[in-house]
Design goal:
single chain, 9 helices, 7-stranded mixed sheet, about 25% strand, 7 strands
């Protein structure tokens, strides 16, 4: 299902430009520090034999690695057609075809038809949505046990970086914009739905958190 809103369409076009370079970068350098931190939190929550839903999965290397290391299966949802192509190719090369599946489109548009999974992952995705609350609330509805998220810290330099990025994108004719949403508000939305925070770490730019349900479904 193609994305329908202008922001989703522009985001799809923007990220499609970097699909091959994202995969090459991971093959050469592996996880970024913030992703290493997120994986530590995911391991603390427990991933073995769990079903994963990665929203904004990019070229797929995060959930593919988690499945290789013991997760049962994963569904990746991604706006960019080129990212999906790279993710499927990576899954085939890793021999994970039967454990992985992909949907192209805006998660919010697709959510009604997506089954709940044990763990939901959003790595650097919340900052790509103008309506962070709607994204978080929809993702929590699909989460049986744990949710793992990473997003920008709210600092003067991250806000400045986003402002510069927005200016550059405007000059390039793209309507896609990144956002720095309030971490306290994001945490409030998650805790309000009956989750407990079990992990948090950070880099200069990124904040990584993992939450588990107080009472598992």
């Amino acid at each position: 299902m193609p994305c329908c809103c202008p922001h989703s369409q522009s985001a799809s076009k923007f990220f499609s430009l970097f699909a091959k370079s994202y995969r090459r970068r991971f093959n050469k350098k592996g996880f970024e520090k913030s992703q290493q931190q997120l994986v530590s939190g995911i391991n603390k929550a427990g991933k073995d034999d769990k079903t994963l839903l990665e929203i904004g999965c990019g070229v797929g290397y995060l959930h593919q690695m988690l499945v290789e290391q013991g997760a049962k299966s994963a569904l990746g949802v991604e706006l960019s057609a080129n990212m999906i192509i790279e993710a499927k190719d990576g899954a085939k090369q890793r021999g994970l075809d039967k454990q992985l599946s992909y949907l192209e489109g805006d998660f919010i548009d697709l959510a009604e038809d997506i089954s709940s999974m044990d763990m939901v992952i959003m790595d650097k995705v919340i900052c790509c949505y103008p309506d962070a609350e709607r994204l978080v609330q929809h993702s929590l509805k699909k989460c049986k046990q744990s949710i793992a998220v990473s997003y920008p810290r709210k600092t003067w330099y991250t806000r400045l970086g986003v402002q510069i990025s927005a200016t550059v994108m405007k000059l390039l004719g793209s309507s896609f914009r990144p956002y720095v949403h309030d971490p306290e508000q994001i945490e409030f939305w998650i805790l309000q739905q009956g989750f407990n925070k079990i992990f948090q770490d950070q880099t200069t730019v990124w904040l990584s958190q993992v939450y588990t349900r107080s009472h598992l479904k």
